[in-house]
């Protein structure tokens, strides 16, 4: 391996008493993709900013392109989280600005622009304002701006956030091409599946390095200990709970109809009898993932029993669907944000709305919450019609908004107090519920801390606590686990699975394809329409047919179905 | 720093800034529509003139002289008269605000005139509105003096000296003559401080600052790229104001365009410097706009001598006005408009404004760091 284009040793960075980076070392090799992987708040952005010379480390040695950080800016390409684009400038103007700032010789400009616009497929959109581009296109333009003068080091700060899987794959392919030219790339991401594609990975958690090396080393460590258990569709949630409570299982997730388990190191892989899973159970080995390795390094996932579910009331059985959408449509002016949404969710099921950002998930969601009035169609929550009894509908659901909408400058207790009042609990019920939530979510020590200063994982717990305090029969979850570490995510789903066993009905939006696996049924929303619905396994099976791949992941399925929809649309346009 | 200052980067940044100005409707509104609104407001709606003030005129005497003086009041351009025979009749009009003053021509006024010892008239004003009260008193007395002069001229005993007031530079004491230069100060403060503070804070908020700092760009180039376009925008807006003031409102312009440009340019230095300083220190559009309103806009409005005369403020407030850059803008502007290029008066103010500008620019260079820490 030739000399690193950037390296750092013993980097420490503190913000007002919080240690963001705690003795981190990293080397970025030329011609390679180095992954900087970790959940939100792990310190990825801070490290990248230190390498780019935008922040000063409190301790540590940093060398970038052979000098101190910030010295060789001519050879640095940097794409910050929001891409660093001027939204009121056009695509061409943004490129020109960066070309001039980086001192690209005028004579080369046209050739470089042509190449970059081809590369990013933005040629047709040169005159469009950057603010009017889709997320995926912005991301590509951001990359093009960072590349106007071929850098030796390219720093990408979470380039895949909020972008649909197709654009994410395209970006990955583009960056792969760049490494062929000898550029050293540092790619930071919270998506663990992206880590598997990097040449080398640095896994950060709470400012510390948990792992460094080729991703295969981490997944290799758990190989042979990952199994898929299937054959008990209806009971899979209860089975997972029981399996996770076993001492030899350190992690488990639901994968459509089956359950995936990670066995503790040094333990025998159990068979069907040992797992006591019933007569039809099949056990087969499954391919290990980077996430499995991460979870093991973090000391394993949570146990299976949810303290929240144990205390929750049993939701009475009901013959009518708990959530219904009949032709829900919402238009904003001449733009249709959601068209003809139809689904019906029975009691005690998890239903997922999947799709890229801006596809219409949140619009559909907000109509069902009664936050947006539908332009057409009807809907009902717990039997309450949205048009006639919107207030009753709202009262019967718990809502967990994107980014955990908490009052950051109120304490944890004050937040709980507020939501208890907002959901109509009286003083005594409220005090009781708050006490229970503090115990279940282990908030005790932090009750008087401002919610805004909580670590992300605790924010998520608090947001869930606020949404379930009044024990609603229906839960609405909008991107509930965005950015949190996998253990916190497991914990969250343990609670949700437990609640569903008690009869709670859950509607969840997510762009995390793995999360879709927890759903009983999903619908894929793309360009304001439902392009496919069914169980996760059914969608995967359809995608397997469409794309001829065996055993596709949910993300593969997502991409195949969207591409199929695009093809159909083109055919229609051509006809 | 200057060795690294690159003209090409500066030009690219300035072009970008101009493109953003052209596309941002709010910039256009502040630079060109706001001046129009302000000028028309001050030109027509807000008037500090008290032409046609309503007064109650009590004529207790029925002599020819008393009636003649009463008709002088009635025909005055400044008063609208409510006639009465006794103070009791009109006392309430002063209380409820129908009349701004009561002028009493007392019993025996005519006899006194004939005897050569004219008795004083009485002027009662509403002290709760001091400006109007002063005006009514002064002009009430003025009408009497003028009438008296004419009367004595007709008779044999002309007084050796008569006083006839004349207001130089603004003979009609039209308030729009000094409100219009004042609104130029407001507009330039809005552009120089408020807009600049907003656009720089926006770069921090939207993350473009971060991307810019990772390019070879120097902070000096960045600051210059913000100063140049908004400086030109300020001058352009000032020119628009002046043209409207002169050609639409007929405000005299007795100085030279050069002197006006020099004064405006000098004022834009502290205005822009303060804007840059605020945005670099806050990095947040909302906070920046609040601070800009408090430290630039309100002082320009209230403490610059534009609406309220500094000389009539209590001394602590007067002391405060010395650190308001607009205080040094209003007098030279009024000089240029109403008197002419009196460089002896203008230059000291220009020097002080440039001094403030240098201070603010120094401060903003100190707080603008190429760092996200």
TrEMBL record, chain A:
Pfam family, one: ABC_tran
Keyword presence, ATP-binding: yes
Keywords of this entry: ATP-binding, Nucleotide-binding
InterPro entries associated with the record: AAA+_ATPase, ABC_transporter-like_ATP-bd, ABC_transporter-like_CS, P-loop_NTPase
MF term (GO), any: ATP hydrolysis activity
Keyword ATP-binding recorded: yes
Domain ABC transporter: 6-231, 323-552
PANTHER family referenced in this protein's UniProt entry, alphabetically: ABC TRANSPORTER G FAMILY MEMBER 20 ISOFORM X1 (PTHR43038:SF3), ATP-BINDING CASSETTE, SUB-FAMILY H, MEMBER 1 (PTHR43038)
Name of the featured protein: ABC transporter ATP-binding protein
Origin species: Pelagerythrobacter aerophilus
Classification lineage: Bacteria, Pseudomonadati, Pseudomonadota, Alphaproteobacteria, Sphingomonadales
UniProtKB/TrEMBL annotation, chain B:
Intracellular or extracellular location(s): Cell membrane
Pfam families, alphabetized: ABC2_membrane_3 (PF12698)
Stretches that traverse the bilayer: 26-46, 177-201, 227-252, 258-279, 291-311, 342-363
GO molecular function terms attached to this record: ABC-type transporter activity
Chain ranges of the ABC transmembrane type-2 domain: 133-371
Keyword annotations from UniProtKB, A to Z: Cell membrane, Membrane, Transmembrane, Transmembrane helix, Transport
Membrane topology per record: Multi-pass membrane protein
GO CC terms in record: plasma membrane
Family: Belongs to the ABC-2 integral membrane protein family.
Name of this chain's protein: ABC transporter permease
